[in-house]
Amino acid sequence: MLTLAALEDASQELRRYMVPTALYSWPLLNDALGCEVFIKHENHAPTGSFKARCALLYLLRQSQRHISSTSFVAATRGNFGLGMAWAARVLHQRAAIVVPQGTSKETTGAIQSYGAFLIEHGKDFEEAHDFACQMAEDSKQVLSPGFDYDLVLGAATYALEIFRAIKDLDAIYVPVGLGTGICGLISVRDLFGLNTKIIGVVAEKADGCARSMEAGEYTLTSSANTFAEGISVRGPAREAFALIRSGAERIIRVSEDEIAEAIRLLYRTTHNASEGAAAAGLAGLSKERGNLQGKKASFILCGQNMNRIWMAKVLQGDTPIP
Question: Where is the Tryptophan synthase beta chain-like PALP domain (predicted)?
């Protein structure tokens, strides 16, 4: 359970290294969707993703707990690894980042630019994570989890910024990977006692969270083959599912084509770049815009880090195939 005091403390800690991100409403986007839409611009955070908040707070709290190691291992599809690499550099620590094979050279290059040691292993996030676990055990380094309290608290700081600014939002659409972002939003919404509906969005080809909600029990898919890399996981973290199940209004699926169209819509109306995972939130909002006419809605533009080749394909009207 998050408390307001814990949130305030976390926000103050992060503010020493990064400023709050913008919450803007863009007229052309509002016109296209028929409602007032507020974008939480986590794409303007350090490393271009909200994961910078999570990674930095995690490492800060590890130091406060007097963890003797200053070397950490993390598995990632991209943004969490970027966040860990950046935060480790800021705090003069070391990070080894494990990514699945085939991760774009732009992502791996960006991770290495912060001084992290990079390893490519496995066909997807789950195999990369298994390797990272073994590596941490063998080398006596600290394994950075993909989901835990400090990571959720880091994400909750952007939720705090949203709900402090606008208390009468009707709905927020958020992409769901392991569940850090949606759990932060649910926790802060409930802490403030607000009525905002929180809708999670997954890719049709990585819909473990939607299947889990429908089945009423934790379920993983056998694969996660979507170009929306940040949500390309077989399901949410097991620890996240209970909160998602109790606090999310629903989990909806969007297609690869709908995600690509959302990237184009965002660029056309705001000139902001979006990666596939971040555009999933807008794709979900757009899919349900018939229920939002005249209302206030928001989505989390959680990252902008899509590789150049895929972005060029999308802007030319195509849908990337991972």
Answer: 19-303
